[in-house]
């Protein structure tokens, strides 16, 4: 590796975490010139001949996250350590080389000396209000890194009433280890339906990013990788285009359900709803409203059912979302948390105060609201 002066190579430790989390390990593998052993390798589990010496039997193994181990020398590590081992230099020089070759991404401008800020993650689910004066949003490019391959089902997810099947559908899991800043959090995959390279008429699921939710009260509650533009996307937006039941549900209800957080969406999906998306918080951006409009035009929706949280921020955000939705020529219906949901012999029945958001409801309650046209 060519040595660089310290003022042009210095990344932050958090930048290195971003690289490890976003590494395209197969591109790294190929780009480093590793000789893949085709007969021994599997789709997400590659073997190669050791790059450190000549050998007749492949002993070098690499899998998701760029985690590698060379059995012939008894050494292993992650992508940065591998580049260091092969190219020389310190970890920051190795990280910069990885970025320059496009094998990962991080929130740093490589065209200028790296004296940038050290914040590598975005505090998500803020309560900031997005107005119609927004600039044109930045499109999020697909990534090849699938962090969910390192995740597992977790008791916290089960306690929220979300099954493994729903986790598999949406891309949800707990990251128990590794060097990602999302370690120890519930990880949610952000995806989209985009035209396939070989067939533009058939969209396929692509991964745009991952974010993590704290399970122990650690702040911030949500972490996003810096550089991902959440205001340009809707959580679970890929279901609208790709799930076989979504088009039918939109046709039946003439509506799309809009909620706040990922667990709100997950509980709705658990209850059988497929025409539901989330806005990553109580602020609906212009770009998100335009996406709702495009979905509505494509699948025949006329109304956006908005069910934000019951707190003040949720109520205020819902009121502002109405303006965004109606500006797109759609009808907006805000869920009224204070209105009676039915009437019993003893009088009106209200949603208990303990239920503060859609994720607090049971599947039966969500299904009941759907049957009555509330969702």
How would you explain this protein's 3D organization?
The chain is of the alpha+beta class and 375 residues long. It folds into two domains: 6-107, DNA Primase, Chain A (Alpha-Beta Complex); 147-371, 3-Layer(aba) Sandwich (Dna Topoisomerase Vi A Subunit, Chain: A, domain 2), CATH 3.40.1360. Helices cover 30% and strands 18% of the residues. The protein is built from 13 helices and 15 strands. Strand 14 (342-344) and strand 15 form a beta hairpin. Helix 2 packs across helix 5 and helix 4 (79-87) crosses helix 5. It is elongated and about 80 Å long. Mean pLDDT is 86; it is low at 1-9 and 112-136.
β content, as a range? 15-25%
CATH first level of the largest domain:
Alpha Beta
Mean pLDDT metric: 86
Give the distance, in angstroms, between the N- and C-terminal Cα atoms: 58 Å
Helix and strand composition category: alpha+beta
Per CATH, the architecture of the largest domain is: 3-Layer(aba) Sandwich
Shape: elongated
Strand order of the largest sheet: 5-9-8-7-6
Instruction: Please tally the helical runs, counting DSSP H or I stretches of 4 or more residues.
Output: 13
Biggest sheet layout: 5 strands, antiparallel
What's the number of extended β-strand segments? 15
SSE pattern, N- to C-terminal: HHHEEEEHHEHHEEEEHHEHEHEHEEEH
How is the CATH topology of the largest domain named? Dna Topoisomerase Vi A Subunit, Chain: A, domain 2
Helix content: 25-40%
Number of domains: 2
Work out the radius of gyration: 23 Å
The low-confidence parts are 1-9, 112-136
